[in-house]
Specification:
Length: about 150
């Protein structure tokens, strides 16, 4: 099996798991009888079905050629992973720590040194927090462990 097939299979499995999570989550959406006939479950459920069909196509399609996986493909997987991890940590770590993680790892993946990536993460976390709280007036969750 070529490396491009392996990437397709991994991506297919990941998309299939996300589609299953979205489908399961859509059944937890409650709605009143006064809403539209389809209700709020229709869109996430349709999205999950489309994602699942695309994932199954990635898992089942034959390979036309074997191509080496480029470093940019690994960078793309890293970006998706850091976005998911940052979003999952958001309720526990708060806005500033999650944004720090997201921005610093993204900078590092794009070639910054670890020191420069951490500076970018700190500055982005501060600037974005100030923009959202002071300019836009949006309350952001603090870090429950550290209290800020």
């Amino acid at each position: 099996m070529g490396s491009d097939m392996r990437v397709d299979r991994i991506l297919g499995v990941v998309i299939l798991m996300v589609a299953a999570a979205v489908a399961i989550g859509s059944f937890g959406i409650e709605y009143s009888f006064s809403s539209d006939p389809l209700g709020p479950r229709a869109f996430p459920l349709a999205l999950a079905i489309v994602c699942a069909l695309c994932a199954l196509w990635l898992l089942a399609r034959p390979s036309l050629q074997t191509v080496a996986v480029s470093p940019s493909a690994y960078r793309s997987f890293g970006l998706v992973a850091v976005c998911v991890i940052s979003a999952a940590l958001f309720p526990f770590a708060g806005f500033r720590l999650s944004i720090f993680l997201l921005c610093s790892v993204t900078s590092w993946l794009f070639g910054a040194s670890m020191f420069k990536a951490c500076i970018v993460g700190v500055l982005n976390a501060i600037v974005l927090w100030l923009a959202f709280t002071k300019i836009f007036g949006i309350a952001l969750p603090p870090n429950p462990l550290l209290g800020f």
